[in-house]
Amino acid sequence: MRAILTMLGIIIGVASVITMLAIGQGTKESILGNIEQMGSNMITIRPGADMRGPVRQSSADMQSLKYEDYEAILKECEYVSEATPMVNTSAQVIYANNNTPTSIYGVNVSYLNIRKLEIEKGEMFTESDIKTSAKVCVIGKTVMDNLFPNGENPIGQNIRINKIPFKIVGTLVAKGDNSMGMDQDDLILAPFSAVQKRMLSITYLNSIIVSAVNEDMSDAAIEEITEVLRTKHKIKPTDEDDFSIHSQQEIMEMMSSTTGMLTLLLASIASISLLVGGIGIMNIMFVSVTERTKEIGLRMSIGAKGKDILWQFLIEAILISVAGGLIGVLLGVSLAYLIENFAHISVSIQLYTIILSFSICTIIGVFFGWYPAKKASNLDPIEALRYE
Amino acid sequence: MDKQGNNIIRIENLKREFIVGGEVVHALRGINFNIQSGEFVTIMGTSGSGKSTLLNLIGCLDTPTSGEYYLDGYSVRKMNKNERAEMRNKKIGFVFQSYNLLPKTTCIENVELPLMYNGEVSAKQRKQKAIEALEAVGLQSRLMHKSNQLSGGQQQRVAIARALVNDPVIILADEATGNLDTRTSYEILTLFQTLHQKGRTIVFVTHNPELATFSSRNIVLRDGKVIQDEKNTHIVSAADVLASLPKEENE
């Protein structure tokens, strides 16, 4: 009974540590999953802010990224599997008496693969549409719902983007919100040439989006692209890049370090209860040693050495804490699953958390059991035998 | 009459002093005696006579301030804690007034206890020896009983079995009949006499002068000195006394 009460501290500690780590890990995995959905090997190249001259300009206004850069990257970088130039703008889109503000992305056909998008109805615009700067577009689910609230078939319809008519040739499969709550379906894709020339009347690109051959090659691809663009832009070795490159990999690392911090925080709060549990064990071991002074005296008088007594009590302390740890693990795991089922927070229990909490339990048993056990082993057998 | 043998215990000018509250208390003021193999010695004395101190010294629980104590030829004075623990484990069997059995533990496990601290004895041998020791004290029918299910006399028998299990050179009994009623006391004394006849060396510490009649030799302490040390030529058989007692329903 007393041992169970003592174990309770450890049980609660271990259970909360495991639950917290499970929640943290689950959150992390769902965020990473979201990023993965957007294409985890995606790399974005943007023009850099102008460092020359007295007035700094926003990178979006820079005109340093050209279509030729895109061609060079696609041709010369072997770690890049696909690439698309991109020009983007926002505009009010009108169909009949409905209208909606949305983002327009001028891209090429590869964009679908890079962003892992799929066509639901109709089809994607074609290479020849790009060559002819055809006024065709593919719309996202949100745009479709806003412009066609009555469920008409949007394919073949003309919508007006900034007063320019575009024909809808396809719709995208809905992706839902991303981990930051942004609607990933509120967009229109059109041939970049059409957006560049007919809508914006510009000759530069806002960005180039490429896909590395795989996630691990992201860094190699970035190096290659940097090399190619520096040569292309004739940047002296001492000068800084006039463009910036971001990979999804970086964002992923950032996100996972954030959630990692959060998990660590939660787990350290939970581990305080483990510490309290450990102090409970120490307390009960002191009581146990005092209560069993006479037994210790007897054991010593029949030949137990100090270290025999030390081990006896140390093992008892470890047993209490490990048994508590075992129950705590079971409790923590079931608690995590309860949370998953009722609170709909994704959890993920990993073997290492269980092993970790288990070894921490053993360490706590040794650490907090040591002093009482040492005290027991140092008892004078004569005194201990006389103890009532 | 007395069995002649080696000196199991050799005590030479043994002194033990304690410092209590800044003052030196002379518990033992120079004691000399030898105990030979096969003797049954009672050490008697009132409280304060130093008999507990002497018992602790003989039992290797304590070391003397000066003088020499040889147990089975080994000088205990020079031993450290662990060496003395080993001496206790291999050479001595303790029997206490309050039995000191582990509660909620079977007789066998209690008796096995000293052998647990002896790495040379295997688990199988341990059990075998424990059963033999319990048979020697007449408890073969209660091997698996828990210690708290036994009567006082039976508990003391288990304690004696525990003292026998390591085959010690000497059995040290400290007021071993002190907690028992008259009848059970004589039963236990009978057991000690039986063990003595089988050649065991026994030292029985008591304040009860009556018990001296059952032993082969009697040492009396007073104020830390031996005031009397004589052989008992008329050993009374405890079994006879037991038979002369009015019959009771208890076993």
Describe this structure in words.
- The complex is a heterodimer of chains A (about 400) and B (about 250).
- Chain A has a six-stranded mixed beta barrel with strand order 2-3-8-5-7-6.
- Chain A has helices at about 1-35, 65-75, 110-115, 125-130, 140-145, 190-200, 220-235, 250-290, 295-300, 305-340, 350-375, 380-385, and strands at about 40-45, 80-95, 100-105, 120, 135-140, 160, 165-170, 185-190, 205-210, 245.
- In chain A, helix 1 crosses helix 10 (about 305-340).
- Chain A is built from twelve helices and ten strands.
- Chain A has two domains: about 1-35 and about 255-385, no CATH class; about 65-240, no CATH class.
- The mean pLDDT of chain A is about 85.
- The longest helix of chain A is centred in the C-terminal third of the chain and has 44 residues, at about 250-290.
- With about 400 residues, chain A is of the alpha+beta class.
- Chain B is α/β, with parallel strands linked by helices.
- Chain B has one domain: 3-Layer(aba) Sandwich (Rossmann fold).
- In chain B, the strands form two sheets. In chain B, strands 6-7-8-3-9-10 form a six-stranded mixed sheet, with helices on both faces.
- In chain B, helix 6 (about 180-195) links the parallel strand 7 and strand 8.
- The longest helix of chain B is centred in the C-terminal third of the chain and has 16 residues, at about 180-195.
- Chain B starts with 6 loop residues before the first strand and ends in a 7-residue tail after the last helix.
- The interface of A and B includes residues 298, 299, 303, 306 and 385 of A.
Furnish the topology, listing elements before pairings.
The complex is a heterodimer of chains A (388) and B (251).
Chain A: H1 2-37, E1 42-47, H2 67-76, E2 80-95, E3 98-107, H3 111-114, E4 119-122, H4 127-131, E5 136-139, H5 141-147, E6 158-161, E7 164-172, E8 187-191, H6 192-200, E9 207-212, H7 218-233, E10 243-247, H8 248-291, H9 293-301, H10 306-342, H11 351-377, H12 381-386
Parallel strand pairs in A: 3-8, 5-7
Antiparallel strand pairs in A: 1-9, 1-10, 2-3, 2-6, 2-9, 4-7, 5-8, 6-7
Helix pairs in contact in A: 1-8, 1-10, 1-11, 2-7, 8-10, 8-11, 10-11
Chain B: E1 7-20, E2 23-36, E3 40-44, H1 51-58, E4 66-71, E5 74-75, H2 81-91, E6 92-95, H3 107-116, H4 123-136, H5 152-164, E7 170-174, H6 182-197, E8 202-206, E9 217-222, E10 225-231, H7 238-244
